[in-house]
Design a protein that fits this description.
Elements lengths: L6 H12 L13 H9 L3 E4 L9 H8 L3 E5 L2 H7 L6 E3 L4 H10 L11 H7 L1 H13 L1
Parallel strand pairs: 1-2, 2-3
Helix pairs in contact: 6-7
Length: about 140
């Protein structure tokens, strides 16, 4: 995550949730190697974007590292999340929606769907294959 306009608000939320034994770590903008390591040691990748994300690479990177998805219920975010078991989709940032997320959180990584189908849609190999097909037609 970068240092956008909501970063300070998120820092306050981290403190509030810590009192409820929910740990969220905010790192700000980091190099890829650090992000990859964080994903590999996480259960969920969170993308609470207000924008209509059509190509949310953060989610794809997190999934390939074994994370489940917690994101918004629109655009490419929902499209990617719907391909995996145990994803959590939010419609808004209301207290009701946030409470729903807290109730659904599950740290059992073994329940996640296999990555085979996901890989077929989002891997570099798949992308290159689709581009090659465009040039050959």
């Amino acid at each position: 995550m970068g240092k956008g306009p909501y970063f300070n608000d998120l820092e306050k939320l981290v403190d509030i949730l810590k009192a409820q034994n929910i740990t969220i770590v905010l790192h700000g903008l980091q190099k890829f190697e650090i992000v990859k390591s964080i994903f590999e040691n996480s259960t969920y990748v969170l993308l609470p974007s207000l924008c209509y994300e059509n190509a949310p690479l953060t989610l794809i990177e997190g999934v390939f590292a074994g994370c489940k998805i917690l994101t918004m219920n629109y655009g490419g975010m929902a499209e990617i999340a719907n391909k995996l078991d145990d994803s959590i989709l939010m419609d808004d940032f209301s207290s009701t929606s946030i409470q729903m997320v807290l109730e659904k959180l599950n740290t059992n990584k073994e329940k996640q769907a296999t990555l085979n189908d996901f890989y077929l849609d989002y891997s570099n190999d798949s992308y290159i294959s689709k581009v090659e097909k465009l040039f050959h037609n």
